[in-house]
Amino acid sequence: MAETRSTCPYCGVGCGVVIAHEAGAITGVRGDPDHPANFGRLCTKGSTLHLTATPVLLQTARLHRPMARTQRGAPLAPIGWDTALDRVADRLAATITDHGPDAVGFYLSGQLLTEDYHVFNKLAKGLIGSNNVDTNSRLCMSSAVSGYKSSLGADAPPACYDDLALARTVFITGSNMAWAHPVLFRRLEDARAARPDMKLVVVDPRRTETAAVADLHLAIQPGTDVMLHHAMLHIMLAEGLHDAAWIAAHTNGFEALRERVRDLTPARAARICGVPETDIVQAARWFAGQSTDGGRFPTLSLYCQGLNQSSSGTDKNTTLINLHLTTGQIGQPGAGPLSLTGQPNAMGGREVGGLATLLSGHRDLGNPEHRAEVARLWGVTDVPARPGKAAVQMFEAAADGEIRALWIACTNPAQSLPDQAMVRRALERCEFVVLQEAYRHTATTPYADLVLPASSWGEKDGSVTNSERRISRVRPAIDAPGLARHDWLIARDVAQRLEARLPSRRTPESAGRSMFDFRTPESVWLEHREMTRGRDLDITGLDWAALDRAPAQWPCPQGQTTGTARLYTDGRFVTGDGRARFSAPAPRGPAESCDDDFPLALTSGRLRDQWHGMSRTGTLGRLLAHTPEPALQMHRRDLERRGLTGGDLVRVRTRRGELVLPVQASDELAEAQVHLAMHWGSEVLGGAGSAGVNTLTQPICCPSSGQPELKHSAAQVEAVDLP
Ligand code: SF4
């Protein structure tokens, strides 16, 4: 038996795993005791990884060979790799020649490795000359990106996991960390056990497992976070809990914020947020952390989709960061705003600029100097200034006929994007859909003209970055099944074919050489590393061998031998003048208000033991046992009002569509709220063209981040009359 160290492919905690394998088969998995994210621990999902990669499942659940249809609606039939790659290159080249580079879109995934992302991004922005590259990470963390950039000047979470043990107050908002980031939550439990004076504040409309153990739970009305943050700041100012000297030395824009919160009293916020005034006051005092001797106890905030998945997601992020800046709670041990990434490599995708609005190395698409730098490093004449389409926009453009070819890799938009009626129209109208997938069937497969088999966890080789900026190696223990190939290799091979089919965009100095002369994941990573030189995420002090020895946190510039645990320790930020920026947005409610016709606020979220569309976790009875079936959760009094009892079938309807499913009484929710897990799709849930909860959700996005408002839709629920 042999053992291979790698990284868990599920959430952004980024736990190290040790894979046991024998004779080409994975036989077990355990937590890596030396990995600084988890020190040997794994959650239920991580500890059952080996069971999702048994020889039987590799044989039955995985896609083994390229397949294509002769026409839409015809069955998929096997084709050879060369034929498949030529066909993709031919169709993309023809689309670009006939309709321009922006007629092509790439929709990627936070589960791809950094090396995969880099090659795709270079293929789209460098070779083709289109910024239409986006990712399902848009659905989970783009508001955190725009929040950091707006407030601190760079998309860089300033704190780290070790701060959990050093914080006096931990402020969790919009995150059911106990289920979505379980190993990190265990670290928080350890820290609380060691420090009985620690205060845990949880802000969440639902009384989740995380909220249930808090010292203070603020069960706010969905979408009222900005009002809460402003009211907390109002209290800090009224009680002199702010750090005036720090604000004066390190920030801009405080007076506008002071003016904004002047009338946003806790009493007013209590009415709007639906929580007691005294709780808002208590939360503000604990957050400020002022001690009786004039010192300050550190406060760490942790946040996730509850802030991000909102039409005002950026405002929710920046107003939370305001609280840190107001009290100087940043750049210190135990203090700072630490957004949690949902996926294992959402952070790596951000580093390589794998979003329509970003460029490699945390550069900005809107900055001509940044575009010129990237073009020079890649040896192309230019990177186009035209903005690319963010996830929802990309599919809207496909539905409108503007985007004619889509290449989808490692994600399932026919289940995971909001407003599925629109998404499915887009996939039907699109003239050419390529799906690069590890699994034999997802909700997106029926729309694909061509499917390309990709390698998966236990087989892949490269790197990922977790929520605390820590880069870890992903290593292969076994070969991919059948003819499946690594994602970056597939992208490289199509890119090299496209180089022969499209007019060259190479500079005279670099003409004649392929832009994609990559032989190994390390060769891709080295090019990515060079893109970070001199940037806030500089990793030029690392090499592949160093990463092989131990995971490292960026930045790690040349001359530095270890990474960096905390950012902004000197109070200087990555803005032009080094000062952080307060923002002062007016509080806004959700885009779609509840009314007499649609009186219920629908939220969606993760379960403890499932992952995304369940391609992997849905294969295990042990994981399904936690929650075997989907059910709409609803408050008991709302059930009674409708004459319903738990287990009854109900029709839940929004302005986009409807689902039929069982209802379940829930003690977690307030009245007038309903909740549905995000994992089940059309295979289980009823309703015309059902795609699970995203049949119901809306495509309204935060104007700054492009992240859709998945956490709030106005809904109605009625009993289904059985014949
Ligand atoms: Fe994997 Fe996240 Fe669980 Fe760690 S906490 S084992 S990364 S799913």
Automatic annotation (TrEMBL):
One of its GO terms (molecular function) is metal ion binding. The keyword Metal-binding applies. Signal peptide: none annotated. Its cofactor is Mo-bis(molybdopterin guanine dinucleotide); [4Fe-4S] cluster. GO terms for cellular component: membrane; oxidoreductase complex. Residues 1-57 form the 4Fe-4S Mo/W bis-MGD-type domain. One of its GO terms (biological process) is cellular respiration. Keywords: 4Fe-4S, Iron, Iron-sulfur, Metal-binding, Molybdenum, Nitrate assimilation, Oxidoreductase. Coiled coil: none annotated. The keyword Transmembrane helix does not apply. It comes from the Bacteria. Belongs to the prokaryotic molybdopterin-containing oxidoreductase family. NasA/NapA/NarB subfamily. This is Assimilatory nitrate reductase (NADH) alpha subunit apoprotein. It comes from Sphaerotilus mobilis.
